[in-house]
Amino acid sequence: MKSLKRYQYERYAVLCRLAYPRVFKQTAFGFDPNGQRIIRNAQGNIMMRVLWNKQREEVVLVIKGSHSVKDWLLNLGFWHKSCKNFGLDYSIHAGFHYLLSQESPPSHRDDQLGLSVFERVLAIIEPRLKHGYRLVITGHSSGGAIGSVIGDYVEHHYPKAIKRIVTFGQPAVGCWRFKKHYRLAHKTYRVCCDLDIVTFMPLIPLAYWHVGKLLWLYNGRIYENTPTFIRLGRSLISWLIRPFSYHLMSKYIRNKDFFDEH
């Protein structure tokens, strides 16, 4: 697996962060003036953005994470649900399954009525994939989780069309069969920051599995593919000793900028 370059990390992290505001100027990031389509959830809220650049023949799918009470409640739907309706032979987290199967209202004059989120994504990206565009998928939290499912489908029907998948703070997605049959482990980068508890969810041992290469940003370093039980152990220890860490002189020195210079 190739490493994730710093400029790639920064680009996808910025795109994920800026996907949350209602207005997003895609031309400021090198995409075409008409190079954006919006995908909404059943409540009409923006859920995904499809961005493209014709010259580079690149499509980027940016997926938001949980950003409403309902979204967070869906994370509690941690039983397995089959993805056969998506043409995939495995099961995933039921809440994430709902995010993909819910109806997506039209946002563009070319959008058809009655399509699910999953179908809406494919309707937008497939014509470009057929013209040789490469696809990058990036998402935060549950957005990263469902992005890996979309990417796996695309890889099956359009081999080598996926350039890479980069997720941030992503929970586990599916059962062992999902991990076994996932086709993009060599192109998937799963970024976890410090003690992010969401990356350990759902908290059901052996029921859900992560895929791809883990990049754990912890204590000023990047750790690759740290086993979950080691990462969880270090996190628990950090949570326990954190109140005492604020007593160290290094903390007082770090906060020197709070004082005026005079």
UniProtKB/TrEMBL annotation:
One of its GO terms (biological process) is lipid metabolic process. SUPFAM superfamilies: alpha/beta-Hydrolases. InterPro entries: AB_hydrolase_fold, Fungal_lipase-type, Sec_MonoDiacylglyc_Lipase. It holds the Pfam family Lipase_3. Residues 60-204 form the Fungal lipase-type domain. It comes from the Bacteria. This is Lipase. It comes from Vibrio superstes NBRC 103154.
